[in-house]
Amino acid sequence: MRKNILIFGHTDATQFIDISNQYTRIFAKEFFEVTVVYLASAPDKLNTKKHLSDHVIYLGEKNKSTRGLKIAAIQKMLYLYRQKKFDLVICHRYQPMYVMLCVAQFCQIPAAIFIMHELNVFKKIRRKISVAFLWQKNMILAGVSNAVRDNMRRHIWRIPAEKIITLYNAIDHERMEPTLLNQKEACEQLHLSKDDFIFGTIGRLAKAKDHLTLIKAFAAIELLCPKAKLVILGEGEERTILKQTIESLNLTHKVIMPGFIPDAFRLMKALDIFILSSIQEAFGRVLLEAMLAKIPIIANHIHGIPEVVGQTGILIEAKNPIILAEKMLELYNMNHTERMQQGEQGYNRAIEVFSINRFSDTFWQLPLIKQCEALL
User: Fold this and answer.
1) Which CATH superfamily is domain 174-353 in?
2) Which of 63, 68, 263, 315 makes a 20 to 30 Å CA pair with 174?
């Protein structure tokens, strides 16, 4: 009889489908049955097909009901748990964690891992109290980087430091690499010329991504880089201010904002240089996608980013358009072979440090997992 595994997330946004699949991959189908549950997403047939798990369940809780005590969600998960009797519970983000902490007060969960993907999750007093009161010894907290782990250790109450660990995000290169479009195909989809030199980024148009600094840096070098264009892939609340800035700098012919494109990582090879200008980044999963595509990287030296990039990319001070412009110009003037070598270094690091196999080895060596009789 197969062991039952629960992977419980907040929404089925693309990155969290990938993360659900990352965890599903490490459980052999002949021994484990994996159920993925999303707290705040409604049923979606297309997204369901993207999962590798045995089951996908959508609770469809509205934003209002996922705040506060979350009684409806707790009741639903309590019912599901009593049906399935999960041997291991893995939660991503705080709200699913809170729900399962409450469920654990009524059911004996053999082992639970709660994974946080953001910084400052436990700064709020209410969360500190809830976790301290509901915590049990057969649980561990994990951050997706050492930066997140250390941040949690500073803010959390009662939980021993050794119970707060790091579990890096991984990239499923065997599945994702074959789906990457080649440079010609990717450029055609974005309506770019093969003669263009493309600086680019992928991510939500949010203040934390600091696209304004990126645009200002590009404006500083635009006349020195006649073949260069800047592509900003993504959608969000900052679109209007970004468009206004682009227009005020007379860059409408050089800065392209195609909006949200599903599975945008497949277009990564359209870029000559990938830039992550974020001023807050717990991990930076998109960096792994750029590394997989062998694209040289410029990113800010903040939070989890250095742990991902290591020595394979250029790390700079955040919110400094002058330094960013200098590095962009440096890579623009670098010969193609040197840029390829940088891309290869990033690719090798992604495979060696962040592969599913590496992640699986780390996971199965966790003391909680090794000591959990229900999983053995």
Assistant:
1) Glycogen Phosphorylase B; (3.40.50.2000)
2) 315
